[in-house]
């Protein structure tokens, strides 16, 4: 079950110059699981200059801030207390994809290691801080739909 039932992702820009869709938590938005705020200036600059639009699939999917850490195990997403949050993660990924499609965006810069946004590495599902090669739920859906995803570490 998700933390919240609904999150409004409707955005009202008809005339846009968005080239990228980016993780909100790279731009100072308070959406990380631990409630901390972080800014990667070069990504935030894309947003500030109108070249990028932000998404947070986990908040869009109904997760609260802060929230328990979640990791992917065997294709499903579990919180550290072993609640199955898979539906929230897929709902958020679909909403993020809808936004990318709405604006015709084909490039994404997403936060590495996240169970939603990771693009090369994710945690292994044991909550032991062990990284493995893999991708998050949103990244996978983006790639399946022709969106090129790179990480904040590559950008
Ligand atoms: Fe949201 Fe993705 Fe950042 Fe996680 S990594 S807080 S899902 S934008």
**Which overall shape is indicated by the principal axes computed on the Cα atoms?**
globular
User: What structural class should be given to the helix and strand makeup?
Assistant: alpha/beta
| N- to C-terminal distance | 34 Å
Regions with little confidence, pLDDT below 50 for 5+ residues: 5-9
Primary descriptors:
155 residues, four-stranded parallel β-sheet, two-stranded antiparallel ribbon, 4 helices, 8 strands, binds iron/sulfur cluster
Describe this structure as you would to a colleague.
The chain is 24% helix and 19% strand. It is α/β, with parallel strands linked by helices. It has one domain. Helix 3 crosses helix 4. The longest helix is centred in the middle third of the chain and has 17 residues, at 86-102. It binds iron/sulfur cluster (SF4).
In short:
β3 (about 70-75) and β4 form a beta hairpin. The protein has helices at about 40-50, 55-60, 85-100, 135-145; strands at about 20-25, 50-55, 70-75, 75-80, 105-110, 120-125, 130-135, 150.
Please write out the topology.
Layout: E1 20-23, H1 41-48, E2 52-55, H2 57-60, E3 70-73, E4 76-79, H3 86-102, E5 107-110, E6 121-123, E7 131-133, H4 137-144, E8 148-151
Parallel strand pairs: 1-2, 1-5, 5-8
Antiparallel strand pairs: 3-4, 6-7
This protein binds iron/sulfur cluster.
């Amino acid at each position: 079950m998700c933390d919240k039932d609904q999150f409004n992702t409707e955005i009202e820009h008809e005339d846009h110059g968005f080239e990228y869709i980016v993780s909100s938590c790279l731009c100072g938005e308070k959406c990380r699981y631990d409630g901390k705020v972080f800014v990667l200036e070069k990504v935030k600059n894309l947003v500030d200059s109108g070249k990028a639009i932000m998404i947070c699939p986990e908040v869009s999917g109904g997760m609260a801030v802060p929230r328990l850490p979640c990791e992917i195990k065997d294709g499903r997403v579990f919180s550290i207390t072993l609640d199955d949050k898979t539906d929230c993660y897929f709902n958020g990924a679909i909403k993020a994809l809808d936004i990318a499609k709405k604006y015709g965006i084909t490039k994404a810069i997403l936060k590495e290691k996240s169970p939603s946004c990771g693009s090369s590495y994710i945690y292994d599902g044991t909550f032991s801080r062990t990284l493995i090669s893999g991708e998050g739920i949103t990244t996978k859906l983006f790639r399946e739909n022709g969106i090129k995803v790179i990480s904040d570490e590559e950008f």
